[in-house]
Design goal:
The chain is α+β, with helices and mostly antiparallel strands. 42% of the residues lie in helices and 29% in strands. It is rod-shaped, with a radius of gyration of 31 Å.
Length: 266
Amino acid sequence: MKIILTVLLLFSLTTVFATQSSATSEIKLKNSKESIFVVIVGLSKNTITYIDPSGKNVDVSNDDIDYIKNVDKNDTKFKKTVILTNYKYYSGSILYQDREKISLQIGDDLKSIKNEDIVDIVSENDFKEEASRSRWKAVGLSSLFPGTGQFYSNRYTVGMIYGLSFIGSSSFTAYFYVDAQKKWKDYKISNYRNMNTYKKYKQDMYMFYGGASLSGAIYLWNIIDSCIFFKYKYEVLNVPDSTKKIDVSLNQINSSEYSFAINYHF
């Protein structure tokens, strides 16, 4: 009996300690007089998700929240990138958030941002990873094998089309090349007299040339496509930057005409 009581006491103390030590955020709800301390596991512009005492995840709309205070400034869940409507963004730790604004700590500075100026709030690590992508990496990958540059740019359907088209055309080309070589050997065995075999050899070679031309066209356009149509997941990263040396763009003039431009910044 004493052993059971001791185990229960230790479990209770451990639970209380774990709850207190991991309570990293203070939330004040509109319909509550007191604030609560919880562990937030999800944070976005519209909703938050926290763990209640029973261990369940609870989703709360930001419209129902008076404020959120980040107790632990080093909590990685609060390290966010805030994307604004003017195509700017700031990365830092969210210390306070309510229905009107958020307070973002950027280094030693504290910046207040109105919710109406915010397009999205994303993970700082996810944003850094996306910003590290490069148009020229996509081109390099597409040069290695068609479709891989499109996969790298999160254009999975297009990448699949290029990859399968190249595999199909290459297989078509290889088949007719091998078959043509067999017919050429048969033609030589007949001391160059079997003209019917020679005609079939020529037909296979024409199919080979056609398949090789198609494969080459797919390969080249795949590289051009990975350069022209490269886009980041977050629109703010697609805005031309004056610090970039080269800017490539494709603009639609009307339903059937497009303009292609390459600008070099000095």
